[in-house]
Amino acid sequence: MSYKTIFHLAQVEYGPIEQPISKKRLIKKLYDLITPHTRGFFHDESWQPIHKVWEIFNETGLDWNITGSRYDGSMPPERKEWKFEINFTNNRGRPDKIYGNIVAAGGGSVEDPLERFDVTVVMSDSRKKTTKIARRKERIPGGMAEGKNVTDFDPSQLAKGTKVEMKEHSTDPNIATEIAMDHLEEAGDCASCNGAKYYNLLENMEKKIEKRKKNESN
């Protein structure tokens, strides 16, 4: 089944990454390639956005492997996590490694949380740190809205987004607001923009899903 997102995914060219390369630069390059394919929400039974990340790794010619995957312990499951490692030659000419986590966090119904999900990719030089960041924030460190203030965004969208993210990701209003700011930044939802209203689109989509379910049950 093909996957759909609320927003159009930008086309980013990718190819072999030359080595040696610094760890910081490699991580940035990978985020630049991956991020356009992990924005928004997905409806997919075969984890297409995750496979897209693996495809990008293959196209870049990196030596990488999946080290594990698992669902969380809830029933029905609310998230799935993959772990991976990337071997490369650093800028000192020495063998080095990057550790990564991908988290698909459910935002669907109570009966099937993963019928709709968003994707977070986290990479760092430490397996422990990567796992900790992924499980705490479920988003890329720093985020798309890094350096932005709450006043940079549409206040009605930010307020609505904070409520949504507190239900889906965190009961901490500060973290929920940061996640909402990331989504609004991705969607071009700044205070002076005329772009799509991310959380309005999300709300309308959920209403259509509920309406469809009611019609199917009648």
Structure commentary:
- The chain is of the alpha+beta class.
- It folds into two domains: 131 residues, Nuclear Transport Factor 2, Chain: A, CATH 3.10.450; 77 residues, no CATH class.
- Helix content is 38%, strand content 18%.
- The protein has a four-stranded antiparallel β-sheet with strand order 1-2-3-4, with helices on both faces.
- β2 and β3 form a beta hairpin.
- α4 packs across α5.
- It is globular, with a radius of gyration of 18 Å.
- The two termini are 27 Å apart.
Key words describing this protein structure:
four-stranded antiparallel sheet; Nuclear Transport Factor 2, Chain: A; 38% helix; disordered N terminus; 218 residues; 2 domains; alpha+beta
Question: Roughly what fraction of the amino acids lie in strands?
Answer: 15-25%
CATH architecture of the largest domain: Roll
N-to-C SSE string, H for helix and E for strand: HHEEEEHHHH
Main sheet strand line-up: 1-2-3-4
For the CA atoms, what is the radius of gyration? 18 Å
CATH topology of the largest domain: Nuclear Transport Factor 2, Chain: A
As residue ranges, the low-confidence spans are 1-12, 137-142, 191-195
Secondary-structure content class: alpha+beta
Number of domains: 2
The beta-strand count equals 4
